[in-house]
Design goal:
Radius of gyration of chain A: 22 Å
CATH architecture of the largest domain in chain A: 4-Layer Sandwich
Function (chains A, B): Catalyzes two activities which are involved in the cyclic version of arginine biosynthesis: the synthesis of N-acetylglutamate from glutamate and acetyl-CoA as the acetyl donor, and of ornithine by transacetylation between N(2)-acetylornithine and glutamate.
CATH class of the largest domain in chain A: Alpha Beta
Shape of chain A: globular
Largest sheet of chain A: 7 strands, mixed
Helix content of chain A: 25-40%
Main location (chains A, B): cytoplasm
Number of strands of chain A: 16
Pfam family, one (chains A, B): ArgJ
Largest interface: A-B, 63 and 62 residues
Strand content of chain A: 15-25%
Structural class of chain A: alpha+beta
Order of helices and strands of chain A: EEEHEHEHHHEEEHEEHEHHHEEEHEEH
Oligomer: homodimer
Pathway (chains A, B): Amino-acid biosynthesis; L-arginine biosynthesis; L-ornithine and N-acetyl-L-glutamate from L-glutamate and N(2)-acetyl-L-ornithine (cyclic): step 1/1; Amino-acid biosynthesis; L-arginine biosynthesis; N(2)-acetyl-L-ornithine from L-glutamate: step 1/4
Keywords (chains A, B): Acyltransferase, Amino-acid biosynthesis, Arginine biosynthesis, Autocatalytic cleavage, Cytoplasm, Multifunctional enzyme, Transferase
Strand order of the largest sheet of chain A: 9-16-11-15-12-13-14
Number of helices of chain A: 12
């Protein structure tokens, strides 16, 4: 199941970047589950990784490689997370980088490994390495959709986003792909997302730009409150296009980057496991951003709110009860107002005088719903995107060993 | 659905306490939904209420009445929570106490009101008051099961627990009833629970005893992380039996009280909405109790862990991922061990060498499962009880407006 229609966008080539995929037989026979992405020598790269304490072997190895060398290849497998695999998992991740490095003529440290799939199973590293030559052989500047498909797990759709801005008369392209559908409550990163641009941006600036854009996109989505062990997001800048070196350039690039990341993050929610609703939670009138996020995530994680959304039931008491248990000190409930779409649901902490079940039900029947919560405490706002909790979510996660 | 067999215990009378129920037509026609419990004049009473900021009108009124007068009657309705009902809700709760006070010949402030059911609907106060004479007429010293049945909402079973200890050669009885099945993550109280003893205990001591016992029982259970607006637990001591006035008496009474409250709390989890599993989470080796509770609740609230439990799938990667995202600073995953029943699942942060799928699956196939998590950081432990996440949980909460 997934919310709304979606087709993979036409993504322009970015000079020097080539993408390829092959079948390693890790996820299922007859499915491309191994992706290689080649970066030109000039590339700078920023990365954000999961803050789950049990981070996976490839996360450790990718961090180490990033410190040691300039990245030339991203190596991504699906079907196996190589997480909870101890020392052998680290050796397996290193081995896969070593093999790709030898085949491509670069140092092993120039390869960044990423894995997604079942936690706790040994990585079938021989099968993975055996499929590398084929992935290299098919590298192509227009392999974006192939790569986006190759990294999926329980996702039902490939996710891509692209935008183009002009800097000093030069076009700058940003292309991103992502995967993710369950175990989604990114903490400082996302499931897996790979973003590319032809702009020239130095390392330190690139890292700041990525961090900020991730905070406003992937870090504002949740399916099930479960932060993955393998979350990773990279931003690679090939440096062959316009140079981003003034505040004005930076702010325009940052806006375009956030736009791409928000589109990918929203695509993950639209394709959330079992999702029948795409829900935008806007919390306003908070004293600071974390307070707004705390309220939004408490509502977004409430199984009772999520099942009411699934049932298209305008059960505002559950929203109110979730707001009331959010970790906000001295919450004055008499100042709280809640809107469901354009319908006033709660005013001054109780049901709005103008509210009718008919009006509420009409909004809830939509597949895309906005809930706006006014706290009446300050001037700060935050937005979080989430999905509902359906029978299919339970079926998918009772059947699938992730 | 509910886990295991259960029958309502034979509960002895406590001198001076009488219980009655009648049909007010609030929940459904032909069902007792109004309960009155009479306390003798000598009674001292301690109470714990929800910390949800949106607490219900009866919670406000009960708090106020407790400060103003000695309680003589508990008045409980199901089918309507009288929460999110604003000023009218307060007037309605007061009105119901006023009417009962007039009928029984006591001050309105001697009546404590409690409500559970749908949030946000006006309390049908006239129907409630009209049914009060009948509830008073049937007051009986052995009405325990009738009262326990009369307070249920989505519960499938009446919940009662009783114990008897001897203090200075005198028998002391503790009887408790409770309701709760969903919107269960009590914060400093439970859904609704009413506990009674014939012991003589002064107010201040009684409040401390209740607070400690609640912290080790109702505050250690969760179904769905949703803290109710109406949670309340009272402990009434009639004072007609043995006096609890030495440290030795107090510690023996405290142990007996905790035993009764744990039995009631566990009964709520066994009867959790859609539950097919009763799960005990023991976290050991924490630096302090809150750290152990944080880890236990993070695992207990994980939808992925809960669906794996429902599927009887020993998916230890999900447990490990949940531990890894718990709010514990500097968690050293290499020290973590996890046991599933008597089977070692995780050692030093990875799959235990001795682990086999057969052994893990055999434990998961049981309806009562213990998961023991060793953090290797200190000497403190905590235990939390929870249920699984099933299709029926979704069905119940997609269909029921609570």
């Amino acid at each position: 199941m997934a919310v709304g229609e979606a087709s993979f966008p036409a993504m322009p080539a970015i000079e020097g970047i080539r993408l390829g995929a092959s079948m390693a037989g890790i996820k299922a026979a007859g499915r491309r589950d191994l992706v290689v992405i080649e970066l030109p020598e000039s590339t700078t790269l920023a990365a954000a990784f999961t803050r789950n304490a049990f981070c996976a072997a490839p996360v450790h190895v990718a961090r180490r490689h990033l410190e040691a060398a300039k990245p030339r290849y991203l190596l991504i497998n699906t079907g196996n997370a190589n997480a909870g695999t101890g020392e052998q998992g680290m050796l397996d991740a290193e081995q896969s980088c070593q093999t790709l490095g030898e085949l491509a003529g670069v140092a092993a440290q120039s390869v960044l490994p990423f894995s997604t799939g079942v936690i706790g199973e040994p990585l079938p590293v021989k099968r993975l390495c055996d499929a590398l030559p084929e992935a290299l052989a098919v590298l192509s500047a227009d392999g974006w959709q192939t790569a986006a498909e190759g990294i999926l797990t329980t996702d039902t759709r490939a996710k891509g986003a692209t935008t183009c801005i002009e800097i000093d008369g030069q076009p700058v392209t940003i292309n991103g792909i992502a995967k993710g559908s369950g175990m989604i409550k990114p903490d400082m990163a996302t499931m897996l997302s790979f973003v590319f641009t032809d702009a020239a941006i130095d390392d330190a600036r690139l890292q700041v730009l990525l961090r900020r854009a991730v905070d406003d996109s992937f870090n504002c989505i949740t399916v099930d409150s479960d932060t993955s062990t393998n979350d990773a997001c990279t931003l690679a800048a090939t440096g062959r296009g316009a140079r981003i070196d003034t505040d004005e350039h930076e702010s325009r690039f940052a806006a375009a980057l956030t736009e791409v990341l928000v589109e990918l993050a929203q695509a993950i929610i639209r394709d959330a496991e079992g999702a029948t609703k795409f829900v935008t939670l806007e919390v306003e009138g908070a004293t600071h951003r974390q307070e707004a996020l705390d309220v939004a995530f408490t509502v977004a994680h409430s199984p009772l709110v999520k099942t009411a959304l699934y049932a298209s039931d305008a059960n505002w008491g559950r929203i109110l009860a979730a707001v009331g248990r959010a970790p906000v000190p001295d919450l004055d409930v008499s100042r709280i107002a809640i809107d469901l779409g354009e319908v006033a649901l709660v005013e001054r902490g109780g049901r709005a005088a103008s509210y009718t079940e008919e009006a509420g039900s009409a909004v809830m029947a939509e597949s895309e719903i906005t809930i706006r919560i006014h706290l009446g405490r300050g001037d700060t706002a935050a937005t979080v995107w989430t999905s509902d909790l359906s029978h299919d979510y339970v079926s998918i996660n009772a059947d699938y060993r992730s």
